Amino acid sequence: MSDGDDSDLPPSTAPAEPPPPAPRPPRPPRTGGDGRPASTLRDPPNNLDLERAILAVLLDGRHPTAIHTLRAAAIDHPLYFWQRDHRLVYLACLELGDQDTRIDAQAVAELLSRYRFGAALDKLRQQQVLLEADQLDGLGRARARELWKRKPEDEAAAYEDSALAALGGFTAVLDLQQAYGALAGLERNVALLKDYFLKRRLIVRLQLICDRAYRTPDEFPAIVDDAARVVMDLGRFNQAAQIHSVNETVDRTMERIQHSIDNPDEGIKTGIDDLDARLMALRPGGLYVLAARPGVGKTSFALKIAANVCNHPERRNRTLFISLEVDRVDLLKKLFSAEAGIEFEKLERGTLLQPHELETLAETSKRLGEWPLDLMDVSDLTVHALRSAVKRRKLDADAGCDLLMIDYLQLLKETRSDMHEYEKVSEITRVLKVMARELKIPVVALSQMSRDSEKGASDKPRPPKLSDLRGSGTIEQDADAVIFLHRVDAGDGGKDEGVDACRRIEVVVAKNRFGPQGKAAMNFFPAKMRFTPAAAEDRLSEPEDAVAPGQPSRRERLQAAPGKDEDLF
Hints:
Layout: H1 48-60, H2 66-72, H3 84-98, H4 105-113, H5 117-132, H6 141-148, H7 163-167, H8 170-177, H9 186-215, H10 220-234, H11 246-262, H12 273-279, E1 287-292, H13 298-310, E2 319-323, H14 328-340, H15 344-349, H16 355-368, E3 373-377, H17 383-395, E4 403-407, H18 421-439, E5 443-447, H19 472-478, E6 481-487, E7 503-512, E8 518-525, E9 530-533, H20 554-559
């Protein structure tokens, strides 16, 4: 055996020396399945269940105001939705809404069956290009409408070429309709949909800044300045602190003016001519405060307005009357007394009613039973609980609410036991105003007046002032109009005896944000809880400073007997 031959030796226990490592090839960058870099592997913010819930409400067909909720939130193009199929469905909803056509699953499916799939995708791509160029949001509603409006050349030649076929047929639309979605949560869901969309825009814009920092030799200050500009630019979508230019507001203003021209009677009339002449109408979103001293008849006056609104010959508006002081049965007795012309005392006792009055009462009860009037009597209610109850009622398609009346706001319970009266009233009026704007209905809230309003130098009550309201600072600030009921007669009790006793009431519009102030004269018959317009000569008013000292007023001249030298004819 040669010295170099060690084949017969036992194997060595020492570990063998590892071979030198082979050169490692450069590691490719991590990418997702669609080729996106690792930094964008995550899906952009979206919520498909949320999108389905919104489309389910639209496709349900029982909520005609749903599309207006989305349009009011400026959801004017389909790119707010993330999934392509959802974008196509909303594209059809926009067109149907623009045509004032009922939106439901059947109508959407029929429209998509006539829509060429390629043409629909082209419209989405065109809007995407404008969005990336940051030009889509500044187009205005009229120009944005042209982007999704279907044209004759967009018609599908056959069903196989249609957008409906690309979605999966009518079954796909029906599945969206049957997804879980509630009208009560639509506004919240729309706000979340918009939030996801804006987050996606923020990510895309900032990703471009990041790519620029990786790939360009631009210096840090220039890149930071561009990043700040991007953030500030997207900050204009912050609705809590949004500033609008007059240019973008002009179109919205002209649309509202044209809507008022096309719908001149959209506001709710009180049915009291002198009052409507100044208020013009109870505006959706307006807060109206009706105040009076105790016993002047503010509840009866509110019921008078409710009766006029519910029994309007052209359009009956559904009214919700919430009473925090009077039981709903007693409230309806007052309404029966006013409408039937029967003394309230007879209705209260029941034994004094005559046969003809019973017949009148039966006819009145039948008539009132057909009114769109809802009553709620509760003595322990916070303003936030009231807001929730009214919102549920408003969003109920079978019920709804066109006008809310509250008797009266100081009886609403405070949310905290340590709140002072001023803090409590401040919270109440603010929530009522926000609720009116949110639900787009007028709110009439009755209010107490402070005891200082009863102090006067003479036996006659002095005219009311805004400072007479309890918690007047916030009530005066939040209310769109403040209306006082002022008793102008002495009120000594001598002339008020008897069934036919009449009290002279002056309706004073002390604040009117959208019209003139002024006064109107009415007669109140407390025995029958009835308000009637005053005679023509009693409604003539004249400013005090228009009468020279020592000279008779216009009313006194009209009521005076003619002089011997006057021509009676």
